[in-house]
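Chapter summary example.
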Amino acid sequence: MIKKIIVAVVIVLVILFLLPLAGFFVAPGITVSGLQGLVGKLYGSQTIGQVTANRRPSRVTIEPLVVAPGKKDTLSPVIGEAYKITRLKDDYQPVHVEFAYNPAELPAGIAEKDLKLFKWHEDGQQKFWQPIASAADPARHTVSADLTTFSILAVRAPLAYYLSAGEVAGLNKNLSNLEKNEPANTCGIFIIAEEELLEWNGADIMEAYLRPEAEQIELRDCAANPNSGVPVRTFAFVTEREINGRRVQYSVVAGTIWQTDDEKSAQLSGAVVDQNGQPLEEVMIKAEKVKYSAAQASTATDKDGKFTLDLHSGIYQITVDPAGGSGQHKNCSPANKKLKLHAFGDLIDKIQNNGTLQKQGPWQETFSLTCSEYYIDETVQLPVNSNVAGIVVKGTETATITGQLIKPTRGGYGWEGTWEIEHQVKAETKTSGVMSIMGGTIAMPSGTIKAEDHYKYQINLPRGAKAGDSFAIKGTRSGYQDTVSTAAGALVVSANGATTPFNLGATSSTETAGDTAINRTGRIVAVNGEDGLTIELFQMVANDPPKVNIKHMK
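The structure predicted for these 554 residues follows.
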């Protein structure tokens, strides 16, 4: 890592001070085509009229309708034809359909990019076209969608056609604001949204769209609010105007009710045991709320391995940390589980006959941890000392390494099997010196590099392992971050008999990296029989890799 940083510094300096002496080139980009024909090869395809589907006729039928549902001369008519699409076989995969259209048929003012697929909807006396999730391709004059339900479909303009761009932006902003600023102890949200469109030609109703009742209510997470005085947010939008001699009214009325649990109505209790069912005392149980307002609680198991947590209703990430209490169970692997702890039943299904809400819980969970007589728990400090092109780097790398035997192998001493290891590294180094480059020198101000990294991986120690044997290290790397700081001072460049100083202020930059897979190799240093063994892992920037002991808990 340090070598890469020094190389990057060199490159920047070369660009700043030596660029006139160098040349460069740019490689052309490479375009990779997609794999759109794969499903078609597996299931076949067919084209009927303006519709293409990635299923053969034995699986899906496409039937053009002589007369499309609804009235023809609405402001936003069907473009082309309407088609009845029916799936004959359940293959449990979405059916991709593509509707071609003639742009010359679009009413004035409708942009091709705004076209959508609409499904004909009949709900008692209500009959209307309802938009579905779809995407327009103006370059190819098509609108496509992935269907999981089947009906009569056609290309039309969306409801936004009746609104100005400013009205659409304002509408979306107000709708999104309904879900902001949730109160404390929130565990869910109850959303009601009514949407209606009416179009008149004189006294005749040409278009009547009302959001189906089943879609007006959306219940997320909590089932109901157990307390009174719940904060409510509402929003209403109504517009009416004339378009091409037609009177159009469009309205949206929406509201949200935050669902809170100010009392700790959800109780989680249970026990932590080892793989043999024996209770584990002083194991830390932590519950952290993962949605809506933050909340967390923790406790340790008692002598019988039992615990109880009183929580606000919500969805929680439960972490069982055997080393987080007294530290006496470092030889046990941790556990994690996400639990939905909502203290009240579903709003519609579980309301009791007297009108009160059915109480849920308490919740019982038993966590079984894999424990062995052997464990890893070491902090190792390693020196960093290198010289790259005259730049001296000195410092220390600190590695904190913990590990548990998660899948023991029968026989042997007891430490054989698959190990899961967590390896955290922090390094702090200082740079100084004079760099020789391209016949000249660059004297740089002193600098500091701080870096940290986090690895999780597995190793396998087989029966009969002996000193000198190697083993694979496979897992993930996450949380990498380095900060490079340069002290204020003069950077002096000497070349061709001339010396030029550049006054620099103090600088600092931070670089991070996402998760990546790791594939390394470790080595067994010494085997101490039943007392354990010493293994060598890998370093980040240190001169030598860390050597850690697998210890025997007797």
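To summarize the output: The chain has four domains: 38-161, 165-260, 266-369, 372-552.
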